[in-house]
Amino acid sequence: MKVSKFIILVATIVVLLVLNLLLGTVRIPVGEILTILVGGDAAEIPTNIVLQSRLPQALTAVVAGAGLAVSGLQMQTVFRNPLAGPSVLGISNGSALGVAFVVLLSGRLGGVALSRLGYLGEAAMSVAAIVGALAVLLLILWVSQKVKGNVTLLIIGVMIGYLANAIIGVLKFLSPEEDVKAFVVWGLGSFSRVSGDEMLLFVCLMCILLPLAFLLVKPMNLLLLGDRYAANLGLNIRRARMLVIISSGVLVAIVTAYCGPIMFIGLAVPHLARALFRTSDHRLLLPATALCGAALALLCNLIARMPGFEGALPVNSVTALVGAPVIASVIFKRRKDEVGE
Questions:
Q1: Are residues 184 and 208 in contact, defined by beta-carbon separation less than 8 angstroms?
Q2: Which of 8, 13, 61, 55 is closest to 34 using CA atoms?
Q3: Sign of the CA dihedral 217, 315, 22, 41?
């Protein structure tokens, strides 16, 4: 039964991947897409659309969705909180703060808006996002060594997020309108920013980080039992918690750097995977969550650039529209089960 569900998930990802290549403002026949993918002779415009736009977006959505979903599951496991997500410790806010410093101060201090620098500006934003996220991650790891309870660490992470947002608000107020617009557009999230060598690097990084996350399956299963019971079974609670936070934080940092702050997938998908597989065993739940995240990200990317829309809708808006019903259904189902008991 579980195997059939995995097969269905993989088939769903394949179908959505094909639809992402087929559908868009420009209609390209299936045969021409196949010719392009196998390297055959095809018209220049369809070739550029498929290879420079649709295929990079689809591959980016697959790995970004899987990474955010796995990160969200890790946070929910560490804090044993169904509403925990990739942004719960303020790491995504650290990315936003890094980008804010680079984007919002570039025009005022350097005299040239970063949004006008093209590829150089995009690279600077990616580096700033990674630096900001990793700085907050290091701060969280240092704090985790000083505090014992998960709740205290969670509260400190939330406070770091609020502090980062406050600094961003001040920078917005002091910055030129053009830089503020560039930062707002970055904050809407997009799978279309990654192309060419950037896309290959992003996919390769995620293909390394995701398998590393699977090495933490056993500690995550033990953490579900509670700190005291897990410690009796020989688990070093503090070390396990630190490793899971590092794995989750690095995944969030890389995805945010390349795609912007797309966080709702990480909050909703673990609940969807639990509902589909009805298990808390991370040996099944972790791969199921990764596959569900990839499928949901492909669906959101497809909706964001459906034919009839000028350009593309913000991915953050689409993920919230798709993910919010999932969270609501989980809450109502849990409430119904509690009343039934």
A1: no
A2: 55
A3: negative
Residue 269: burial class (beta carbons within 10 Å; 0-12, 13-18, 19+) = buried
Q: DSSP 3-state helix, strand, coil percentages of the chain (rounded to 5)?
A: 80, 0, 20
Burial 43-79 (b: 16+ CB within 10 A, else e): eeebbebbeebbbbbbbbbbbbbbbbbbbbbbbbbbb
- Establish how many alpha carbons lie within 13 A of residue 131's alpha carbon, considering only the half-sphere containing its beta carbon: 12
pLDDT single digits (tens) 284-318: 999 999 999 999 999 888 888 775 554 567 787 78
The pTM (predicted TM-score) of the whole model is 0.85
Lookup: tokens for 89 = 């410790």
H-only helix segments in 260-280: 264-277
Alpha-carbon Rg for the chain in angstroms: 21
Is residue 281 helix, strand or coil?
coil
Render pLDDT for 111-142 as a digit per residue (tens, 0 to 9).
555 555 555 666 777 788 888 888 888 888 88
